[in-house]
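Section 3.1: Structural characterization of target chains.
Under the original work plan, the team committed to producing a structural model for every single-chain target entering the pipeline before any wet-lab resources were allocated. The record below documents one such target. The sequence was received from the expression subgroup and is listed exactly as submitted; it comprises 234 residues.
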Amino acid sequence: MKCVIIEDQPPAQRILQKYISEIGYLKLEGVFSNAIEALAFLKTHPVDLIFLDIHLPKISGIEFLKVLDPRPSVILTTAFSEYALESYDYGVKDYLLKPFSFERFVKALAKIPDPSAGQKEEFEAKNKPEARKEIFIKSGYEHIRIKVKDIIYIKSDGDYTEIVLQEKKHLSSESLRFWLENLKDKEFVRTHKSYIINTSKIQKIVGNQLTLEGGKKTPIGRAYKEQFIKGIIK
């Protein structure tokens, strides 16, 4: 996480530099004694976090916040508490009153969002594998291809699983866990220790029983019911 210090008092600068050096994920990009120099730097060197004093030469920390755009996360460091309320109008994450301990510094950092979180979510969304449209099931010595959308439910039957379609059934040597891991989450859910159902095939829910396409019925286990109902009824 890239950060800068905007602070005109050398002792306060040194304390912040020491604290920052002890946090492995923080990278100090610069130390500035006034906000004008910092503004010029930030135009070409964007950062994730600013440690900002309020009483600065030329323009105050509050005035700096008013013109800062875009605005990264900001933690104020000051000896004056009267600006606390106003500072939160500008999205300040925390307000450290001097002198502050390392423990208090760490607590302030805990309020700063991870700048890589959005990038991670975007990457995962772009690279999320498409839902499988067809799947091969191992039945005896054969591998049979079936369309995933045609599966109504899957039932554990001893050492096998029973794949139930509209007009036929297939016995597979794969476990129920295998199907949970390989079928699309939220579309195929476990409703009982022995059943996975295709949610798109649900016709009605009565008590602890599901009626699926074709009038097929499956149970809802007590251990699964609450989570299943929450997920299926928005």
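The chain is about 30% helix and 30% strand.
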